[in-house]
Amino acid sequence: MSNFYIFSNGELIRKDNNISIIVDGEKKDLKSEVIEDIYLFGEVSLNTKLLNFASQKDITIHVFNYYGFYSGSYYPRKTNVGGSLLVEQVKNYLDYENRLYIAKQFISAGSFNIYRNLRYYNSRDVKLDEELKQVDILIKKIEDMDTIQALMGLEGNIRRIYYSTWNKIVKQDIDFQKRVKRPPDNMINTLISYLNSLIYTTTLSEIYKTQLDPTISFLHEPGEKRFSLSLDISEIFKPIIVDRMIFSMLNKAEITEKDFDTGSNFLYLKESARKKIIEKYDKRLATTIKHRDLDRSVSYRYLMRLEAYKLIKHIIREKEYEAFRMWW
């Protein structure tokens, strides 16, 4: 199974039992049996016939605007549904003590994975001993937090220290001082925003394959117009997938100033750069590790689905949830 990315302007149609993309009069058939998600970056027209077919095949369609920023998703009608699980998921959210426990797991695992990144890049040339010590101290305070707000404040302090190391880790001369989202104000912030939107959509697609409701979250407050559970679970995997990719691509000069629209203060990635990042991202998702509990190799992408399954076991009181932590 794989993702399919469309950057060109064209038309997406159903043809027999497959999907076809038509660009400049030329048609390319896509085998629906092997597609999990379709990502639309170009101006692509489609109709209800195509959407109905995508629903039948459980294909999620993610839409991005002209500049590569996430706009929304076509989320097929769920067939893998469970009313009893939905009720239990809501109960777990309403039980504040339990909700706080799950939220702590997300932050604890995400922060631990941040710590592992810092440890990985700590070397003779890049001195991160002090930052490692500060992050370790804050991680040990996670269990003491008694509200979601306090927990998120602590996580913000961990990320502030973490981001302060990026100018040391990244070998290119980029003035990255802090995380700026709306809009991103330099190359690194633009890369973070772009890759975060990709990992949010991937996580959403993996949640879709389970009986979890993606709008009922535990760390981020559930709200309108967003699938907040994907934000929760993504916290665990952003250091592993997004941050490692940014460090690698910048340090290997696979992404440089030439890949940005410098006239917009590096706000927009050029299409050629987005394609390079997508290719790297796909390979990263397909990377496998030997799973300690399953005793077999699983991909990073499947780890996200396993995280959803682990959360289900906690919700139905089968096994207490422990979020994923890097061991390598």
From TrEMBL:
<keyword id="KW-0460">Magnesium</keyword>
<dbReference type="Pfam" id="PF01867">
    <property type="entry name" value="Cas_Cas1"/>
</dbReference>
<keyword id="KW-0479">Metal-binding</keyword>
<dbReference type="GO" id="GO:0046872">
    <property type="term" value="F:metal ion binding"/>
</dbReference>
<dbReference type="GO" id="GO:0043571">
    <property type="term" value="P:maintenance of CRISPR repeat elements"/>
</dbReference>
<comment type="similarity">
    <text>Belongs to the CRISPR-associated endonuclease Cas1 family.</text>
</comment>
<dbReference type="GO" id="GO:0003677">
    <property type="term" value="F:DNA binding"/>
</dbReference>
<comment type="subunit">
    <text>Homodimer, forms a heterotetramer with a Cas2 homodimer.</text>
</comment>
<dbReference type="InterPro" id="IPR002729">
    <property type="entry name" value="CRISPR-assoc_Cas1"/>
</dbReference>
<protein>
    <recommendedName>
        <fullName>CRISPR-associated endonuclease Cas1</fullName>
        <ecNumber>3.1.-.-</ecNumber>
    </recommendedName>
</protein>
<dbReference type="GO" id="GO:0051607">
    <property type="term" value="P:defense response to virus"/>
</dbReference>
<dbReference type="GO" id="GO:0016787">
    <property type="term" value="F:hydrolase activity"/>
</dbReference>
<dbReference type="InterPro" id="IPR042211">
    <property type="entry name" value="CRISPR-assoc_Cas1_N"/>
</dbReference>
<comment type="function">
    <text>CRISPR (clustered regularly interspaced short palindromic repeat), is an adaptive immune system that provides protection against mobile genetic elements (viruses, transposable elements and conjugative plasmids). CRISPR clusters contain spacers, sequences complementary to antecedent mobile elements, and target invading nucleic acids. CRISPR clusters are transcribed and processed into CRISPR RNA (crRNA). Acts as a dsDNA endonuclease. Involved in the integration of spacer DNA into the CRISPR cassette.</text>
</comment>
<keyword id="KW-0540">Nuclease</keyword>
<keyword id="KW-0464">Manganese</keyword>
<dbReference type="InterPro" id="IPR042206">
    <property type="entry name" value="CRISPR-assoc_Cas1_C"/>
</dbReference>
<dbReference type="InterPro" id="IPR019858">
    <property type="entry name" value="CRISPR-assoc_Cas1_HMARI/TNEAP"/>
</dbReference>
<keyword id="KW-0238">DNA-binding</keyword>
<keyword id="KW-0255">Endonuclease</keyword>
<feature type="binding site">
    <location>
        <position position="220"/>
    </location>
    <ligand>
        <name>Mn(2+)</name>
    </ligand>
</feature>
<keyword id="KW-0051">Antiviral defense</keyword>
<keyword id="KW-0378">Hydrolase</keyword>
<feature type="binding site">
    <location>
        <position position="235"/>
    </location>
    <ligand>
        <name>Mn(2+)</name>
    </ligand>
</feature>
<feature type="binding site">
    <location>
        <position position="155"/>
    </location>
    <ligand>
        <name>Mn(2+)</name>
    </ligand>
</feature>
<dbReference type="GO" id="GO:0004520">
    <property type="term" value="F:DNA endonuclease activity"/>
</dbReference>
